[in-house]
Design brief:
The structure holds three protein chains of three kinds. Chain A is mainly α. Chain A has 13 helices and no strands. Classes of the chains: A mainly alpha, B alpha/beta, C mainly alpha. Chains in contact: A-B, A-C, B-C.
């Protein structure tokens, strides 16, 4: 067991972390918003944690709080992400579809260039030597794990609540949702902020986990990965992004012998998934289940109607 | 009973095209008001102007004296103006029950945290939403199919569901855009009776766009006739039927 | 002139700097314009953004390099390979662009057509084209590694590497490649303009862009014209990539990503689907980048995206696009 965790602990925690990042893209998607902004907030959260953990300015804080500085980093990352998300989201979410995606791409790029050049972020080199919260990589399961559980609980409850219904209505038909009394812009911004806050907290947790932090954490490539997780796993339920992340993020390990080809395979999977699995794997499984159920009902002589 | 809705010189231009040309009329509270005219006359555009889905290029529209022109659609809906659409805009990927529940949005207040953490108030509100939604489904005869995807319903059932959804808003005014489209004679009869019933039961004022002239003549208290965006006639069914401009518009359009 | 060296006046230095920036800006701007037109053509026909365009850009650069220089480096499957026969630069440029056009057609077949025949959400096409881009770029990496490739200075044959003009002691440099870029771009724009506005093919393309259903009813083979469009788009992308590659070198298979994204900024600025918009947008962004003061040169890349964001907020239809009317 010990050896397994030593060899695969990092991978397992990474799978949880990537699932969380996929979910940060999922929440805006539940309101129909294709936002590629997650890497920007992830990067922001990580820098906040890295700076609070290493900068001289925060040394008295670190001395006073001890390990409690870590939850504080997460809190501040969450608040900063929320503020930035409101700032960016309110104007950007008046846009639809491709325009929104482009605006979020622009946002991530601008943030990346800024981080690459400012002193406080360590410029191109970034910040390194970030103090650890746990002794081993596997230890971080105690931060990412509960966060994932909390996020899944949050998502489950949201889906069944009034706000969750508003999101779904907007996703289905934004105009009709307005005609039914739903302020679409407000809820789109809310969904966007939820995704941003999640990405920011994950970033803050990831800084000590990865030990260094630089502008390469927040790139367009990263948003493609998260998009792939959601698309391949399925964007219509909470489990889709998790499944997609676990499958795709473990691919590098599984395909270790083919290491050069794995990105090619990622790309091929993306094409195949969008063409043949528009609802992702979870969606496809759901459809199979429905087909099986209706066949069963027909066999029993029913007309498929709900009793 | 007084005037509940009033349009004054409502105008809608699309570039060089005039879709609605200085249309003025008043709707009495509690009446069933019909809006007819040849295809492309601007009827649906007029509905869109009234519900804020399309901005007006000029003129005003008031509800109980409050100006609605310039208001966003969700606020107009919250004030009590519900509608259906010519092309049926149900939330296809959601169940019938969810479709109806969504319309309760502006009548409820549970926020994000209340919904997620399940406060006492939010749980009670959720129960009331559920109860009301089933009542509406029963009213439109779809209570046995509540948990089915609305996309799986037949055309007629979808029309009924859409009306039910609009009723779930607790509206004071109901705008129905061609609710009888695609129905046979028997269904049209049922619909007519149904509209009279809900008008009485819920104290509604109903505005109705419809192509089937006999249905309109039989159901509506007063009728407005549009042609090329202009209001060419306005009055009781008898008056409108005899109006030469109306006859020409319909015969000319054939 | 006296025996003493004259010190250039401040205004002359500023004017010379201005001229230099102008020239640099127009040069890179015209490449942005050509590249952006590839996006515009596909968008006006299909209403979607082809995210594989940046990969075709990259492919074009590598193809032109292979045909004109043909010496591969130390990593990848083809490490150390020296292609025995080289074409002249102009021929390589042309062939590279043509092959890129063919690649564009392949992209359409793989990423767009299957989704189109199913009537799928256009955003899905965005993602599948991204997938194709990922595959393309990584296949290139697999074959020739990720090192830098640059074109030798004598690749243009007899032309000198640069022209220099002296103004009162200060120098304005026009690199030959900039002249080539500008002239090729202008030639292509002229040809494209002629094609779109004065030929039957162009008229058919415009008809399909306006309304594919109607065009098909008029007897236009819509599928075939979509193919032509993707060929043209790939041609433009590959041409732009080759020109950039010769000008700045090829910094590995991911060098096209930045251009791919900047191209999006160009078309949004100019107005999605607008041909003159792409040209104007390209020049504006090229000039804006050229005029970034030297102290802030690190932020040059952010200029295009700042423009993109600002335009989306203030006037989403861009400078020359038409406002979208939402049909209810």
């Amino acid at each position: 067991m010990e050896e397994f965790l030593q060899n695969y602990g990092f991978l397992l925690v990474t799978l949880v972390q990537q699932s969380l990042l996929a979910l940060s893209l999922y929440f805006p998607l539940t309101a129909g918003q294709l936002s590629l902004a997650a890497p920007g907030f992830y990067s922001l959260g990580g820098y906040i944690a890295a700076i609070m953990a290493t900068a001289d300015y925060f040394a008295p804080w670190r001395d006073a709080l001890g390990w409690a500085i870590f939850p504080l980093e997460w809190l501040i990352a969450a608040i900063a992400s929320a503020l930035l998300a409101f700032l960016v989201g309110i104007p950007a979410l008046r846009l639809r579809g491709i325009y929104l995606a482009l605006a979020t791409i622009a946002f991530v790029e601008i943030l990346r260039v800024l981080c690459l050049n400012l002193d406080i972020t360590g410029g191109a080199v970034g910040i390194f030597g970030i103090p650890q919260l746990f002794e081993s990589r596997w230890g971080y399961i105690w931060t990412f794990g509960p966060l994932l559980a909390a996020t899944l609980f949050f998502g489950y409850r949201l889906d069944r609540s009034r706000v969750g219904r508003a999101f779904k209505a907007i996703r289905e038909d934004e105009l009709a949702a307005g005609a039914m009394g739903i302020d679409a812009t407000r809820y789109k911004v809310l969904a966007f902020v939820i995704g941003a806050v999640l990405a920011g907290i994950v970033g803050a947790m990831s800084a000590p986990f990865l030990n260094t932090w630089n502008a390469r954490q927040g790139t367009f490539d990263a948003s493609i990965s998260y998009l792939a997780y959601v698309l391949i796993g399925g964007g219509r339920s909470l489990w889709g992004p998790v499944l997609g992340a676990v499958l795709l993020a473990s691919l590098p390990e599984l395909l270790r012998p083919l290491k050069d080809a794995r990105l090619i395979i990622n790309g091929v999977l993306l094409v195949i998934a969008t063409v043949y699995l528009p609802q992702g794997i979870v969606g496809a499984l759901h459809r199979l289940k429905q087909i099986a159920l209706s066949r069963g009902a027909a066999a029993r002589g029913g007309d498929g109607r709900h009793p | 009973m007084g005037v509940i809705l009033e349009a004054r010189a409502l105008q809608r231009n699309f570039g060089g095209l005039v879709a609605v040309d200085s249309v003025s009329f008043a709707v009495e509270e509690g009446e069933i008001f019909g809006l007819i005219g040849p295809n492309g006359a601007g009827k649906s555009t007029l509905f869109n102007l009234m519900t804020g889905l399309t901005p007006a290029s000029g003129g005003t529209f008031t509800f109980r004296g409050e100006t609605l022109t310039g208001m966003p659609p969700h606020r107009i809906a919250a004030l009590g103006i519900g509608r259906t659409f010519q092309n049926i805009r149900l939330f296809k990927g959601l169940t019938a029950l969810e479709n109806v529940k969504i319309a309760r949005h502006s009548r409820t207040v549970t926020g994000l945290l209340g919904g997620v953490f399940g406060s006492g108030k939010s749980r009670m509100e959720e129960l009331s939403v559920e109860k009301k939604a089933w009542e509406i489904l029963a009213l439109v005869g779809l209570a046995d199919r509540g948990t089915e995807l609305s996309d799986n319903f037949s055309y007629g059932e979808q029309r009924r569901l859409e009306i039910g959804r609009a009723l779930a808003l607790d509206p004071t005014v109901l705008l129905l855009d061609e609710p009888a489209a695609g129905m046979n004679a028997a269904e049209k009869q049922t619909l007519t009776g149904f509209i009279r019933e809900i008008r009485a039961r819920f104290n509604l004022t109903v505005l109705l766009i419809e192509h089937h002239v006999p249905l309109v003549m039989g159901l509506c208290d007063r009728i407005a006739v549009l042609n090329f965006g202009e209001l060419i006639a306005f009055g009781s069914p008898a008056e409108v039927q005899k109006n030469p401009a109306v006859i020409e518009a319909y015969l000319g359009a054939e | 002139m006296t025996g003493e060296r004259e010190f250039p006046s401040r205004t002359i230095m500023d004017a010379v700097q201005l001229l230099q920036n102008l020239l640099n800006g127009i040069s890179i701007g015209s490449v942005y314009a050509i590249f952006a037109l590839g996006y515009t053509l596909v968008f006006s026909i299909l209403g979607i953004i082809n995210f594989a365009h940046g990969a075709v850009f990259t492919l074009g650069a590598y193809l032109t390099y292979s045909m004109s220089v043909g010496q591969f480096g130390i990593s990848g499957l083809l490490a150390g390979l020296q292609i025995p026969y080289q074409f002249s630069f102009s021929l390589s440029l042309l062939l590279g662009a043509v092959l890129s056009g063919a690649a564009g057609v392949l992209v359409e077949r793989l990423a767009f057509r299957p989704l189109r025949s199913r009537g799928a959400d256009p955003l899905l096409a965005l993602v599948s084209s991204l997938g194709v881009a990922l595959v393309t770029v990584n296949v290139i990496q697999y074959l020739v590694g990720s090192e830098n490739y640059s074109f030798p200075a004598d690749v243009y044959g007899d032309l000198p590497p640069a022209f220099m003009f002296h103004f009162g002691g200060k120098m304005v440099v026009i690199r030959t490649v900039q002249v080539i870029i500008f002239s090729v771009s202008m030639l292509i724009l002229a040809l494209l303009g002629y094609l779109i506005n004065f030929t039957r093919t162009g008229k058919a393309l415009r008809a399909v862009a306006e309304n594919a259903a109607t065009a098909s009813l008029l007897g236009i083979n819509v599928d075939r014209f979509i193919l032509y469009t993707f060929f043209l788009s790939g041609f433009l992308g590959g041409m732009a990539g080759s020109l950039v590659g010769t000008s700045f070198g090829i910094a590995g298979p991911y060098f096209g990503v930045a251009y791919g994204l900047k191209g999006l900024a160009v078309i949004v600025m100019g107005g999605l689907g607008s041909v003159p918009g792409a040209v104007v947008g390209g020049l504006v962004i090229g000039l804006a980048e050229a005029f970034v003061p030297a102290d802030y040169s690190a932020y040059k890349d952010a200029v295009a995206f700042a423009f993109l964001f600002a335009v989306l907020l203030v006037r989403p239809q861009g400078l020359l696009g038409r406002a979208q009317i939402q049909k209810v």
